[in-house]
Amino acid sequence: MAEPEYAVYAIRYARRDARRPEHFIGGDPHDAPMPMDYFTWAVVGQERSFVVDTGFTAEVAAKRKREHLRCPAESLSLVGLDARTVGDVIVTHLHYDHIGNFHKFPAARFHLQDREMNFATGRHMRHATFRHAFEVEDVVGMVRMNFKGRVEFHDGDHALAPGVSLHFIGGHTPGLQAVRVLTARGWMVLASDASHYYEHMRENRVFPIAYNIADMLEGYRRLEALADSPDHIIPGHDPLVMQLYPAPQPALKGIVARLDVAPASAPTPTK
What we know:
Strands 1, 2, 3, 4, 5, 6, 7 and 13 form an eight-stranded mixed β-sheet that branches. Strands 8-9-10-11-12 form a five-stranded mixed β-sheet, with helices on one face. The chain has a single domain (7-258), classed as Metallo-beta-lactamase, Chain A, CATH 3.60.15. Helices cover 23% and strands 24% of the residues. The chain contains nine helices and 13 strands.
């Protein structure tokens, strides 16, 4: 029996202005603009659907000086999903921009790597270097979800459903996981922060928030091995995603990109 194919969407819910030296360890010789987009992703099937990451709230956006465009949970309605009835949320990692709004998914089970919860609740959080990308209330919220039996822990790779699998990457955080999905155009990978921008993985450069730099670099090769081609890998924060992939309808241009179709062209980062 053939595995099911899924439609996959990126929903852009926030942004911030930034410059190239902010996005690479060691800086960058080109002091040019390099804005950052924030996404939640929807994997929509005929029988079962998944949400990948839940974004951050307007309150956290104000605290961290991000431009909040729309509620990621409410925006799922744009692709036919209702956060109140979603049964599975894949949490790639527990940074503030990937796990906020968890409380808006009352029916969901949250899929998380063991190592990520251990990291976010363990000794390393006493160091500002590690904890600054976490919101303590989000982490405590996941602990509460666990006490309610609503967190599914995974230790490494896991086949979540036919056509959808989780893959441990690490590097950015100790428990970062990517999501592999079967689509009409083949196997694609939602990299999340295993590669913030296309440029990171294609030029072997590293984002400054890192737990293990070696694992981040090796993670790029892991993404390539999981995907049918480099064009089947979707980075976690690159505004090029919204330019390369079409909106499901004209009114959603710049808001939602459909990822299970071929991109308009290969990404060419501007330096």
